[in-house]
């Protein structure tokens, strides 16, 4: 039982707090800290009501490494779980180095003023974490996170070589609002409006956002959705760590309604991240937009339907072509009943708890900065089944894999 510090009291932070509280044999004293103390207190009250456990709360500015380091020392935390925003990643890694604490997150660093996300900034901490004898685990959400572990597990148990990887993220849920994002609107919109990049024959190729799409039918009656190819951060680490990959792509479903709203917002300049002068005050349009959009952590009550996220993987086993699809299906209403959150926060928060568990109680506590696919996947995969995200896999023919035919329409 070890003390932990969770930073960030949004949709994901709430799920992490609930799920850690449900595993008392691993997670000792839990402190939830964020910019707005009242949000931490509201989550702590819900955790108490659902699990009977008392968790401590605190206010912290995660952009201030010294202040966060002081809180780590005060709480005695052995692991900091960063579920604030990607802008805070480097300051929180610095805080962990200052206060001798392991680090974990679910999204890679992004500078506030450039819509660019890549691992280079965090990989540059390798030597510092090694020398300090500390662990930093990067990207322990669903995607990145579970999708990386699915790939590592497929390589360990089903392939000698992986040649193609297609990660397909479908949210078949409906929140009943005209327009809302599944997680932090600012981060979400920066991600989906970025140029698309995919890996092909040893290099990343760039194409315009949303320019390639196709229909995808999910298994188990989740439905048929249009999926769009886009860039996602796990492609960068996966092609580095699995060098036999000839092609790697990421696909996400969007409804026509979401795309229509996004197009209008882009056309009128509301997704800009550079400051504009309004009545003598500088405001960033995308940050203002976030302030008027629904808060993703409030969508749980109204969201119905299921998510289906998985990987189509092809390669070679014993000299023969092989293809599989490995996936999880998660029900929004079931998540809300369990922890009071919709499935997007749930599918991120549960793997964050499981990654933290491997560091505290498993064999993932190794000095240095690690992407999740670099670790043995088996214990994490077993924990997914045990803690609310059961997975399944099916063998595909090469033709089925080529067309992503994993179920009949
Ligand atoms: N890997 C995955 O599968 C996946 C999926 C979804 C999301 N994510 C990541 O998960 C993280 C959390 O997402 P979310 O939807 O929960 O976001 P959110 O609802 O916006 O929550 C973010 C929290 O961080 C706090 N925060 C922001 N800046 C801070 C600062 N300087 N100091 C202290 N606290 C600060 C916010 O405080 P306030 O409440 O005061 O604003 C808020 O409580 C993001 O990094 C997102 O990219 C990963």
Would you kindly provide a brief summary of this structure?
36% of the residues lie in helices and 27% in strands. With 409 residues, the chain is an alpha/beta fold.
Proportion of strand residues: 25-35%
Bound chemical compounds = NADP nicotinamide-adenine-dinucleotide phosphate
H/I helix tally: 15
Calculate Rg over CA atoms. Answer: 20 Å
Percent of residues in helices: 25-40%
The biggest beta sheet reads: 9 strands, mixed
Tell me the total number of β-strands.
18
Which consecutive residue ranges, at least 5 long each, have pLDDT under 50?
Answer: none
Principal-axes shape call: globular
What is the arithmetic mean of pLDDT?
A: 95
Distance between the termini: 47 Å
Describe this entry's structure for a reader:
This protein has 409 residues and is α/β, with parallel strands linked by helices. Helix content is 36%, strand content 27%. It contains 15 helices and 18 strands. The protein has helices spanning 11-21, 37-51, 65-75, 89-99, 120-123, 126-132, 146-157, 185-192, 234-241, 256-267, 285-292, 332-339, 343-361, 378-386, 398-402; strands spanning 2-7, 27-34, 56-59, 79-82, 102-105, 135-138, 161-171, 196-200, 203-207, 213-218, 223-230, 247-253, 276-278, 281-283, 306-317, 320-331, 368-371, 391-396. Strands 7, 8, 9, 10, 11, 12, 15, 16 and 18 form a nine-stranded mixed β-sheet that branches. A hairpin with a 2-residue loop joins strand 13 and strand 14. Helix 1 (11-21) packs across helix 13 (343-361) and helix 3 packs across helix 4. The protein starts with a strand and ends in a 7-residue tail after the last helix. The structure holds NADP nicotinamide-adenine-dinucleotide phosphate (NAP). NADP nicotinamide-adenine-dinucleotide phosphate (NAP) is lined by residues 8-13, 34-36, 39, 60-63, 83-86, 88, 106-107, 141-145, 183-184, 187, 296-297, 348. The site of NADP nicotinamide-adenine-dinucleotide phosphate (NAP) has 32 residues, from helix 1.
């Amino acid at each position: 039982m070890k003390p932990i510090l969770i930073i960030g009291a949004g949709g994901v932070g709430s799920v992490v707090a609930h799920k850690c509280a449900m595993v008392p044999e691993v997670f000792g004293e839990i402190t939830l800290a964020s910019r707005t103390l009242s949000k931490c207190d509201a989550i702590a009250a819900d955790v108490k009501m659902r699990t009977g456990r008392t968790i401590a709360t605190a206010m912290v500015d995660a952009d201030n490494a010294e202040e966060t380091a002081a809180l780590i020392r005060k709480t005695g935390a052995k692991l900091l779980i960063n579920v604030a925003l990607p802008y805070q990643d480097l300051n929180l890694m610095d805080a962990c180095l200052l206060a001798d604490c392991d680090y974990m997150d679910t999204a890679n660093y992004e500078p506030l003023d450039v819509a660019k996300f890549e691992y280079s900034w965090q990989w540059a901490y390798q030597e510092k974490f090694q020398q300090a004898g500390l662990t930093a685990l990067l990207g322990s959400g669903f995607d990145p996170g579970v999708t990386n572990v699915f790939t590592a597990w497929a390589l360990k148990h089903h392939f000698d070589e992986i040649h193609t990887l297609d990660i397909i993220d479908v949210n078949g849920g409906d929140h009943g609002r005209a327009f809302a994002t599944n997680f932090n609107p600012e981060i979400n919109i920066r991600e989906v409006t970025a140029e698309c990049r995919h890996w092909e024959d040893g290099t990343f190729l760039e194409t315009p956002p949303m320019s390639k799409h196709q229909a995808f039918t999910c298994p188990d009656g989740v439905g048929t959705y249009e999926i769009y190819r886009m860039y996602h951060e796990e492609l960068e680490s996966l092609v580095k760590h699995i060098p036999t990959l000839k092609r790697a792509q990421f696909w996400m479903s969007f409804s026509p309604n979401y795309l229509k709203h996004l197009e209008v917002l882009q056309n009128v300049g509301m997704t800009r991240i550079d400051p504009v002068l309004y009545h003598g005050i500088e405001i960033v349009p995308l940050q203002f937009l976030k302030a008027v959009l629904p808060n993703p952590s409030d969508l749980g009550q109204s969201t119905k339907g299921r998510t289906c996220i998985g990987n189509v993987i092809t390669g070679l086993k014993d000299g023969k072509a092989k293809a599989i699809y490995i996936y999880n299906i998660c029900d929004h209403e079931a998540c809300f009943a369990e922890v009071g959150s919709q499935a997007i926060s749930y599918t991120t928060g549960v793997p964050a708890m499981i990654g933290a568990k491997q560091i505290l109680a498993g064999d993932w506590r190794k000095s240095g900065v690690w992407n999740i696919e670099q670790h043995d996947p088996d214990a994490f995969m077993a924990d997914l089944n045990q803690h609310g995200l059961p997975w399944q896999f099916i063998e595909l023919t090469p033709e089925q894999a080529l067309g992503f035919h994993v179920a009949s329409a």
